[in-house]
């Protein structure tokens, strides 16, 4: 049964709330990651993989933790030190956070473009500042240039 769960368990395919949900006791997590439970305890002590605690003491591993354990095992087999692995995982986590931030910002930009009623025509003011010009209107005589801003083509 654990072997079937290992074949079906792919943390990247789960929803974000399921991906980080504490599900597995240490013995099951060790089996899924193909490691000894003592190795998981060691990784917890040094901060490589930090499972949630249930009832204050009992470790509960998430599918994401299992994914991390598998990565650690792969890096270790490739000769990367535990400190190197810790740094790699830290950088991967930072990249994930930044990618999520970029996705949120892209979504907000698309929404603001879709609902925007603000003019998209700008002129250079008399002091070099940028001023907006309503559609169909000419800039005041004391402006020096007119610039039409068009959003960049949307990437898919």
TrEMBL record:
Per the record, the domain of life is Bacteria
Q: Which keywords belong to this entry? A: Coiled coil, DNA-binding
Which InterPro entries did the record assign?
DNA-bd_dom_put_sf, MerR-type_HTH_dom, MerR_fam
> Coiled coil where?
88-115
The HTH merR-type domain is annotated at 23-91
- Indicate whether Chloroplast appears among the record's keywords: no
Q: What is this protein called?
A: MerR family transcriptional regulator/heat shock protein HspR
């Amino acid at each position: 049964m654990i072997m079937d769960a290992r074949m079906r368990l792919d943390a990247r395919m789960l929803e974000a709330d399921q991906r980080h949900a504490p599900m597995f006791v240490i013995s099951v997590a060790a089996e899924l990651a193909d490691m000894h439970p003592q190795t998981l305890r060691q990784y917890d002590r040094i901060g490589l993989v930090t499972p949630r605690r249930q009832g204050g003491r009992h470790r509960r591993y998430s599918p994401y933790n299992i994914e991390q354990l598998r990565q650690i095992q792969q890096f270790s087999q490739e000769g990367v030190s535990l400190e190197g692995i810790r740094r790699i995982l830290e950088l991967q986590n930072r990249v994930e956070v930044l990618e999520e931030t970029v996705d949120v910002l892209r979504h907000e930009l698309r929404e603001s473009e879709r609902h925007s009623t603000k003019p998209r025509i700008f002129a250079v003011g008399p002091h070099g500042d940028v001023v907006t010009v309503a559609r169909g209107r000419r800039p005041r005589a004391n402006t020096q240039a007119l610039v039409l801003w068009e959003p960049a083509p949307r990437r898919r």
